[in-house]
Amino acid sequence: MQSPTIKDVAKRSGVSLKTVSRVINREASVRTDTREKVERAIEALGYRPNPAARGLRSTHAYAIGLVYDNPNAHYVISMQEGVLSACRERGFGLQIHPCDSSAADLAEELSTLVSRSRLAGLVLAPPMSEQDELIATLKAQDICFVRIIASREDPQDGSPCVYVDDRDAAYAITEHLIQLGHTRIGFLWGEPHHRSSPERFQGYSDAMKDYGITINKKFVLPGNYAFDDGFRRARKLLALKEPPTAIFGSNDEIAAGVLAAARSAGLDVPWDLSIAGFEDNPFSKQAWPALTTARQSTAEIGRHAALRLMDELQRKSNGADNTLGNEGFTPELVVRGSTSPPRNSAPRHSAPGHSAADKKS
């Protein structure tokens, strides 16, 4: 059976091919009743625009790129799924482009990618999205992009973005451990060039400070977002004369490595050691016990970033001067079996001198 064409949509809705094209491209000049009539015809026929064909017939590009440099396969796959869902919803194609965020010629690489592949714009994942020099170069070349960044609030710096409040989520995780009765809490960093790492450390250190707990510098170790590195650093912490009773890994892969280290040392998790991670990827659900973590909807973040990019493309196409708002996400604390009160310790319930509102300020 032959797939419906744009001509079929025009015939069914009783409008011109040009009007159907305007509706598909979400141009603001189309009247509401006409738009609805065309959309009903599209739905009834099951018509799906062909981004490649649209690109060949038009001066406009109908594909976007997702640019990332992240060793975490679960993060990358979820991000791809989210961006792809937005592309299908709006009739865009998608090109995936892994790259080396530390490459000296990264800006040139992305510029070439956009021109050769005729991309309308880019979704930039961390850490590229957080490189000021790269962002300035892309702006100077008039390349449309949307960043995904770690930030407590909308940076309002003129660059469209979706921002994730890692700090408050990390605060909630640390507060949960403290309220269980833990005071000796270790923290394992991810790569420092990912802004999520210092943001998550800030949440940890702010919670410790608010509860009047001095951070033991021996309990805070640099490293990267990897299982093996989590295992290595946890072994180091557990070898201390007075080891931590809880360890907060900056992501779930690190936390899973901590869990493996605890098992290899013969410890009973969570009673001998509580463990928390971040992101709620499959590591957290498949571990035993399952990991306490912060649920970060990576697919939704990717989807909203792609939609934000498409809205920005439409705004520029219409010559509009209005500034579109950015969207923020805060990962949600998920308590599972990997955390409990330490042995022979009474849990705490509130931070001395701080209300819940104070701690979120």
TrEMBL record:
Transmembrane segments: none
PROSITE patterns on file: HTH_LACI_1, HTH_LACI_2
Signal peptide (UniProt feature, chain positions): none
Stretch list, region Disordered: 317-361
Annotated HTH lacI-type domain residues: 4-58
Keyword tRNA-binding on entry: no
GO molecular function, one term: transcription cis-regulatory region binding
Classification via InterPro entries: HTH_LacI (IPR000843), LacI/GalR-like_sensor (IPR046335), Lambda_DNA-bd_dom_sf (IPR010982), Peripla_BP_I (IPR028082)
One Pfam family per UniProt: Peripla_BP_3
Keywords in alphabetical order: DNA-binding, Transcription, Transcription regulation
Keyword Transmembrane helix: no
Stated name of the protein: LacI family DNA-binding transcriptional regulator
